[in-house]
Design brief:
CATH architecture of the largest domain: Orthogonal Bundle
Oligomer: single chain
Number of strands: 0
CATH class of the largest domain: Mainly Alpha
Radius of gyration: 26 Å
Helix content: over 70%
Largest sheet: none
Length: 289
């Protein structure tokens, strides 16, 4: 009897523990699903609104009576969106290239090269992250006007061709690369630049892709700065182009939402292609140093 009671008691304890664990897991999943739905609601509303008529938007109706697919055609023809897209693509690509070049070189210097004042300079770099971006708009604008870059591509690219946060992110990743690799490369007569290109960059693909994605999103979503430094429709990017639907009479919300849906498609496509590397880059970037 005693031998039979012990396994039965263990079975009850095991089952009770399994029920509690399953309940906690179920609650956790429910909370995550609710949070995901809350986060997705603005995008769902944007897509649904893009198929409405102006009257349905004004009346506050959530679901349209008819899916107005032609809203996308009308939105595309309402402004020179082809030009806006070309500008945004060109600005984003050149910004990514500049950001990666400056970021990789600066991060490697702070991570692996020894020079006087390295830590102090890096600390001052990090201190600039505490300065609100709004405080730098006027000095940067005056600099752009002094250089004669107003209403040019340079004004929209050069100020964002380097990022302190991206340098910090890459530096932390570079510092996680074993020192033994550099010692072996040094014995073979490898220089710092050759070691960076041949060893560090290939091993840091995840971090570099992460920086490229963040740079692309920041450049693609830029609105305030391009609005300030441009005056011609030929130079303005897609986010500024969305202002075409805001007039003195009324805001064509359904057309703006259709255009906004088209605007986020490149970001989604870029993220889908870089999702694996982005996740790995965020997960493996340490805080060493």
């Amino acid at each position: 009897m005693r031998m039979t009671a012990i396994p039965a008691r263990r079975a009850r304890v095991t089952w009770s523990w399994y029920v509690r664990a399953s309940t906690v897991q179920l609650i956790m999943y429910a909370v995550l699903i609710i949070g995901a739905l809350i986060a997705m609601f603005p995008f769902i509303w944007m897509i649904i609104t893009s198929f409405k008529s102006y009257g349905e938007v004004a009346s506050g109706r959530f679901f349209p009576r008819e899916l107005r697919w032609w809203n996308y055609i009308e939105a595309w023809n309402a402004a020179p969106f082809a030009r806006y897209f070309m500008n945004s693509i060109f600005i984003a690509i050149t910004t990514i290239v500049g950001d990666l070049v400056t970021g990789v070189l600066a991060a490697y210097a702070f991570a692996r090269m020894e020079f006087p004042g390295r830590d102090t300079i890096f600390f001052l770099f990090l201190a600039t992250l505490m300065v609100p971006g709004e405080l730098t708009v006027l000095p940067n604008f005056l600099t752009i006007r002094w250089l004669g870059w107003y209403n040019t591509y340079q004004a929209q690219i050069i100020p964002f061709a380097a990022s302190v946060f991206h340098i910090f992110l890459l530096r932390q990743f570079f510092m996680n690369i074993p020192r033994d690799y550099w010692d072996a490369a040094l014995l073979d007569g490898c220089t710092h630049f050759r070691y960076l290109i041949s060893v560090v960059v290939p091993l840091s693909r995840a971090a570099i892709v992460t920086v490229a994605l963040l740079s692309f999103i920041g450049s693609w979503n830029a609105f305030l700065w391009p609005l300030i430094v441009t005056s011609s429709e030929k130079m303005r990017p897609i986010q500024v182009g969305l202002r075409s639907f805001v007039t003195e009479q009324a805001t064509q919300t359904q057309l703006m939402m259709a255009a906004a849906t088209m605007v986020i498609v490149p970001i989604i496509i870029f993220y889908l292609f870089t999702q694996k590397q982005f996740t790995q880059g965020i997960a493996t970037t340490g805080l060493k140093g």
